[in-house]
Amino acid sequence: MMKKMVRIVAVFAVIASFWGFWGQQSARALAGGLTTTWREPVSVLAVTYRNPADAKLGTEFGEKIDLNNSHIRDFRELRGFYPNLAAKIIQNAPYEQVEDVLEIAGLSEGQQKRLQANMERFTVTAVEPVYNEGDDRYNPGVY
Fold first, then answer.
1. What is the pLDDT of residues 22-37, one digit of tens each?
2. pLDDT winner (highest mean) among 1-15, 47-61, 75-89, 127-141
3. pLDDT tens, 42-93?
4. Going by C-beta distance under 8 Å and a sequence separation of 6 or more, which residues neighbour residue 25?
5. Could you tell me if 65 and 119 are in contact, meaning their C-beta atoms sit under 8 angstroms apart?
6. Average pLDDT for 100-108
7. Cβ atoms of 64 and 122 closer than 8 Å
8. How far is residue 36's CA from residue 44's CA, in Å, rounded to a whole number?
9. What are the φ/ψ torsions at residue 139 (nearest 5 degrees)?
10. Residues facing residue 123 across a β-bridge
11. What pTM did the predictor assign?
C-alpha cells in the first residue's frame, strides 16, 4: 500500500512540475517576453558577451606566436626554440614590441640568430590574465 501511495505522489509531482513549466512559458508568451518557441534556444550571452581570450583569437594572436601570451608549447614549431629559448622568452615577458625580445640578457649568438630569423612569426599584444595567471604558460595541465 505504501509503495503504491509513493508512486502516485511521484507521478503527481512530475505532472505538476511540467504544468508549472508550461504555465511559465505561456505566461511569458502572453506578456511578450518570449519571442521564440520553447524548442529554439535563446543565445543571449553569445550576442552580448565575448570573453577577452576568444576575442584575442581573432587578432594576430591566433596567427602568430604572441610573445606576451602564447604557451611554451606554441614554440615547438620553431626549430631550436623549445624548451630553453622559449622559456627565456616567457620569463622575460612582457614586451612592448617584437624587437624587445632581442634584448634578453644571456642569449647565445645562436639564439640571437634564431630569434632574428623568425621575427615575422611573432607578435606582441596586451597581456591577457587568462593566458598568464598561475604559470599556465608553462603547464596548463593539459595532458
1. 555 555 555 555 555 5
2. 75-89
3. 555 555 566 777 777 777 767 899 999 888 988 999 999 988 999 999 999 9
4. 34, 38
5. no
6. 95
7. yes
8. 12
9. -155, 95
10. 66
11. 0.59
Residue 141: CB atoms within 10 A of its CB come to 6
Q: In angstroms, rounded to a whole number, what is the distance separating the alpha carbons of residues 11 and 142?
A: 45
CA atoms of 35 and 131, how far apart (whole Å): 38
3-state SS, 39-94, equals: CCCCCHHHHHCCCHHHHHHCCHHHCCEECCCCCHHHHHHCCCCCCHHHHHHHHCCC
In one-letter notation, the amino acid at residue 135 is D
The grid coordinates of residue 11 equal 507521478
Q: Are 68 and 127 in contact (CB under 8 A)?
A: yes
How far is CA 117 from its chain centroid?
Answer: 30
3-state SS, residue 113: helix
Nearest residue to 130 (alpha-carbon basis) of 63, 69, 58: 69
